[in-house]
Design a protein that fits this description.
Shape: elongated
Strand order of the largest sheet: 1-2-3-4
Structural class: alpha+beta
Largest sheet: 4 strands, antiparallel
Number of strands: 4
Radius of gyration: 20 Å
């Protein structure tokens, strides 16, 4: 199953690369004329399929521990708090998930407990994580919770 998904992902990425290269060649041949909307849609759809395949084959979250909803939130805007393990051997994390896309913050709970809130990679003494990378899995868990 995993090999099949990886194969689909590779095919989707290759198809997207070929479509982009073909569009770039036509763009140069046409003297910089704009791409047609349907052509852009086709390229973006192919890329989206590849991204979905990537997310399916490479899960970031090993285990969801707890989910809570804070309805009053910040200035009345509610948010979810999700505690989870990134991998069995890795640290425990917390995600703050607001309504709307691209509104997710993720932190290492151990580092937070030690007061580490600096921006930067953990290896550099920071506690920064790409919430956007965790977002699909966090929102899926929240959807099951609600």
């Amino acid at each position: 199953m995993r090999d099949e998904m990886a194969s689909r992902q590779a095919k989707s990425l290759q198809a997207a690369i070929e479509q982009i290269q073909a569009a770039e060649n036509r763009w140069h041949e046409d003297g910089g004329a704009r791409l047609q909307d349907d052509e852009l849609t086709r390229i973006l759809t192919t890329l989206a399929e590849a991204v979905v395949a990537e997310r399916v084959t490479h899960k970031l979250i090993h285990k969801i521990e707890e989910i809570e909803y804070h309805r009053n939130g910040v200035s009345g805007e509610g948010f979810h708090v999700v505690t989870f393990q990134q991998h069995p051997e890795r640290t425990k994390m917390v995600g703050i998930v607001f309504l709307g896309r691209d509104r997710v913050a993720v932190f290492d709970r151990e580092l937070l407990g030690r007061g580490v809130i600096q921006i930067g990679l953990p290896d550099d003494g920071g506690n920064s994580w790409h919430g956007d990378q965790f977002e699909p899995e966090l929102r899926a868990a929240i959807h099951k919770f609600d």
